[in-house]
Amino acid sequence: MSSPKGHVGVRPADYPPPGDLRQEAVKRELDPTDGRIDAGVVIVGGGPAGLACAVRLLQLLSDAPEVMERLGDVPVAVLEKGKFCGAHNLSGAVMRPSGLAELFPGMDPSEWPTYGAVEQDSVYWMRSATSALRLRPTPPTFRNHGNYVVSVSELSRWLAEKAEQAGAYILTETAGQQLLVTDGSVRGVHSGDKGLGREGAPTGKFEPGVDIVAQATVLADGPWGHLGRAAIEEFDLAQGKEPQVWALGVKEVWEVKRPLDRVIHTLGWPLRYGAEWHEFGGSWLYPMGKDKVSVGFVVGLGYTDATVSAHDLLQLFKTSQLVRGVLDGGERLAWGAKVIPEGGFWAMPKLSAPGMVLCGDSAGMVNVPNLKGIHYAIHSGIYAAEAIFEQLKTGGTDFSAYEARVKDSLIARDLYTARNMRQPFDRGFFTGGAIANLMVATGGSFPGGRWPNRPDADAPMQVGDRRTAYPEPDGRYIFDKLSSVYISGNSTRDDAPSHIRVQREVPREIAETWRYMCPAGVYEIAEGAPASGPVDVIVNSANCVQCGAITAKGGRLTPPEGGTGPLYTIT
After folding, report:
1. pLDDT at residue 4 above 70?
2. 3-state SS assignment for residue 45
3. 140-157 burial string, b = 16+ CB within 10 Å, else e?
């Protein structure tokens, strides 16, 4: 497969989304006191980071009743835009135990919501659908003995129960729409309106959003977090940092006839090795008890062929002998998609501003070579809670101690060791792998320095032939995008305003990029559009599962109406 001769491509960055993020996502005047909610601490995001923060904060407040009393009737509020905590949470996922062990000291791991500890690992270099070479010994970055297989959706529901038992007010179906900023300090968040029609006018079911004013605001709103990105821009938190880059992961959960006895990762096929394509990623097969298996594929969003599709690459991957041997006779139970921050240490922004902190994926806390992020999210929530608690005792809003704590923790130490291990793969699979192995062997010291990130939207896109390899759906092992969206439980109104910001007339290369990239079939090209030049893009926003990939490739995802989107339960 080769690129079109003489075609240099078109950059998504040259076709930015309409509107201004800060203007849309920052509110600079507070509502009157009788029309708002006063809270002690407001946490945006009901995933592992936000809920760990709530649990730890309430643990500390339980030993400081005078501080708890000063926080009023709502000491800790958690905003979750899904129908329940975990509804929008998705990951591989193998979790290191250190986060839960620190959050719940003394609790036996058998009480955690996991599928048990990993006992065996296998890593394969996939050379084709019929050839898989097992790498022995298991490369260090893929060793998972003693880690735990989890569903992040289940983990989030469990953490939500613990937070509520401790006294947190969890406001589900509530999107954080705007950051409240006055006099250079974050004062809380404004929740999103509900019941708006397609053009943004109130319907008979309209419910206006409300200011939730707090002494501290925690932004744990995920890898493409609307308010997290607004805060980074508002307070210039990324100054001097590398740009964040992303990958898109698509995952299925299968009920299988035979138990899988190990964690499996693969490299290579069906991705292409050439540096010109910038294709980077891999796959996994994780056992979820004796009767279920998680299978997924991740691809970095810096690729240059517009027809790369993470969903279809997963379907192609499932045609391999390795995967078919695991899934044979089984049934698909669930599907989902989500972006992963891959910028690493150099892209992690400043973590605090007056009145607020960033936690977890919203701060880019993912170790790409080790495929880990959940325990970092939990640790960051704990550290944020401890820094906030110290300031609550005095009424302060300087949470810089949180940032210092992160820098002195395993989060920063691990990410620093892996600081340059993602970037070399822009030079191709084999060259990148050789350089990354040197970095692993030397703890990141050689080759040293600071390797830059190229923003995903700067990749020049061309309509290549990756699409020619995708298998046709058979409804048994291979599935199309719309049937996958259906089993995600997506519940977005057809007549709701679009929460997606993209230009509607773009070059064919950009339109094809969005069409293939989106795992949910949100973007279509108008019928009769020319084969080259500008084309009209149709946006089916009701299909969106809020994976966030469009934010990396020239658009912007904003929070939809609270309660909409996927209903993940075992992903």
Report:
1. no
2. coil
3. ebbebeebbbbbbbbbbb
Tokens 């036996």, residue located: 108
d(CA 156, CA 399): 25
Query: Model confidence over 325-370: pLDDT tens digits?
Result: 999 999 999 999 999 999 999 999 999 999 999 999 999 999 999 9
Using CA atoms, how far apart are residues 154 and 337, in angstroms rounded to an integer?
Answer: 16
Taking Cα atoms as reference points, which of 245, 209, 202 lies closest to residue 224?
245
Secondary structure (DSSP) of 449-488: S-PPPPPGGGSPBB--SGGGGPPPP-SSS---HHHHHHHT
Q: Per residue in 9-18, pLDDT tens?
A: 999 999 999 9
Q: Where are the beta strands (DSSP E) in 233-373?
A: 246-255, 263-268, 281-288, 292-300, 331-341, 352-353, 356-358
The rounded Cα 197 to chain-centroid distance in angstroms is 28
Structure tokens at 407: 């820098």
Residues 6+ apart with CB under 8 A from 199: 497
pTM of the predicted structure, to 2 decimals? 0.97
Q: In 3D, which of 88, 171, 78 has the Cα closest to residue 567?
A: 88
Q: What is the pLDDT of residues 138-178, one digit of tens each?
A: 999 999 999 999 999 999 999 999 999 999 999 999 999 99
The contacts of residue 246 (CB under 8 Å, 6+ apart) are 223, 224, 300, 301, 339, 340, 341, 342, 456, 548, 549, 551, 552
341 backbone dihedrals φ, ψ, rounded to 5°: -70, 125
The single-letter code of the amino acid at 337 is A
Query: Is 354 within 8 Å of 391 (Cβ atoms)?
Result: no
- Give CA–CA dist 174/488, Å, rounded: 20
Peptide bond into 4 cis (omega under 30): no
b (16+ CB within 10 A) / e for 424-438 = bbbebbeebbebbeb
Comparing CA positions, the residue from 58, 172, 60, 150 lying closest to residue 99 is 150
Kindly report the number of other CB atoms within 10 A of residue 450's CB atom. Answer: 10
Helix and strand tally (H, E) in the chain?
Answer: 15, 25
Closest to 116 (Cα-Cα) out of 256, 264, 284, 287: 287
> 3-class SS at 12?
helix
d(CA 357, CA 351): 6
- Give residue-wise pLDDT tens across range 282-331: 999 999 999 999 999 999 999 999 999 999 999 999 999 999 999 999 99
- Cα–Cα dist 545/561, whole Å: 13
User: CA 454, 237, 39: angle at the middle one, nearest 5?
Assistant: 130
| Beta strand 505-507 pairing with 534-539 | antiparallel
Contacts for 206 with CB less than 8 Å, ≥ 6 apart? 193, 194, 195, 196
Q: Which residues contact 114 (CB under 8 A, 6 or more apart)?
A: 95, 148, 149, 150, 155
Average pLDDT, the chain: 96
Q: Is 142 left (phi over 0), alpha (psi -120 to 50) or beta?
A: alpha
Residue 94 burial class via C-beta count within 10 angstroms: exposed 0-12, middle 13-18, buried 19 and up: buried
